[in-house]
Amino acid sequence: MLKQFAYQRFVRQRFAGQRSARQRSAPRFWQSTATSVVSLVCLAVLWNAAPTARAQISAASLPASQNPAGAQQPAAQTGDDQNPAETLKLNVNVVGLFFNVKDKHGALIPNLTKDEFELFEDGKPQTIKYFSAESNLPLTLGILIDSSGSQIRVLDMEKQVGGAFLRQILTDKDEAYVIDFNIDAELVQDYTRDVHRLQAALNKVKINSGVTMPTLPGAGGGPVPTAPGSQRGTVLYDAVYLSAHDMLAKEVGRKAMILLTDGEDEGSQLKIKDAIEAAQRADAIVYVLLCADRGYYGSFGVGYSGESEMRKLTESTGGRVINVGNKFDKLREAFDQIAAELRSQYNLGYTSTNPKQDGTYRKLEIKSKQSYKIQCRAGYYASARDKEP
Would you tell me the crossing angle of helices 155-169 and 328-342 to the nearest 10 degrees? Predict the structure, then answer.
């Protein structure tokens, strides 16, 4: 355990060093207009009676005991339910949730009101205090791209379609970053709203499996998938943890990660549960686009089993897995679906009937009175933001 913790600290220090050359700008919240500031003051007056505490939905690090390393836009609500995102920026004990609503065919449902939902925490009903159908809040987005050997036949496709998605989704209020992972995790591009820099970062990503074969049939040699049991191959779980803990945990508003990967992890020091917990503590929605050339795995006698763990990750955080294989059109369609979901989110806030900030995990459930499907994170950790380890 101590060895794992030492590795995690080393990797995070190295990862942070990749960011040291860039001076971060002030948080986007403080760059908002005077109107937004006046709104916050008014909200603070309205909520004077609310208990003062840190927002429960964010925490920066894992428990010490683990030592881990084209839908319509919904209509906005009015009145006291307006601007729930600002509630997360005040020291008010409010739990915030972003979620999507879909019919039985998977189509997004807009224009619903808070009276059409029921909210439960650990099975106990909660009162929805703030609600809106927001699609214009600032978005912080991480693109995590797998450059291990198994991606050799799909990497160029991921770069091209991923760049087009960023040009489509990002506005002047949004920021994104790019992480490349193979035998190590590297921050290729820090936060920026410049899509040209993001595309350039994607273009820099190269295959690196740490293993080469000079006589690779049909390819003239090159990287190959890392066999099970090897030391390092694809540090997927480590990359998700670093993205959540070091990049997203301190951000506010809407936060999401998109993983372009086959879902196979080989060599991470952390486990899938550590990656899930870090994403939940950062309040980050995780999408996984499974870009898996299963025939390539078969040609090396290596089994494919990445999808099940990726479903655990996405279902726990309010995202989903989209299987695109090695098809260009499927990948483009998957990005279009994610863009539509991020633009069609509902946003609610509530004060838990359990006021304890004891670090325990609380299960969340939103029910639709019309039996629509709710896509939302599974829970949160009831603890104030921890100090850096």
Answer: 30
CA distance 332 to 216: 30
Provide the phi-psi class of 150: left if phi over 0, else alpha when psi is between -120 and 50, else beta. alpha
Structure token digits, residue 31: 């760059």
How does pLDDT run across 249-272, given as a tens digit for each residue?
Answer: 999 889 999 999 999 999 999 999
Angle between helices 195-204 and 155-169 (to 10 degrees): 170
Three-class SS state of 321: strand
pTM: 0.76
Residue 90 has pLDDT above 90, yes or no: no
CATH architecture of 2-23+137-342: 3-Layer(aba) Sandwich (3.40)
CA 166 to chain centroid, in Å, comes to 15
String of DSSP letters for 126-140: E-EEEEE--S-S-EE
| 321-366 pLDDT per residue, tens | 999 999 999 999 999 999 999 999 999 999 999 999 999 999 999 9
CA dist., res. 113 & res. 133, Å (int): 8
Q: For residue 245, what is the DSSP state?
A: I
> Strand pairing of 175-181 and 139-146?
parallel
Which residue, among 254, 280, 282, has the nearest Cα to 169 in the 3D structure?
Answer: 254
Terminal CA-CA length for the chain: 15
Q: Report domain extents, the chain.
A: 2-23+137-342, 51-133+352-381
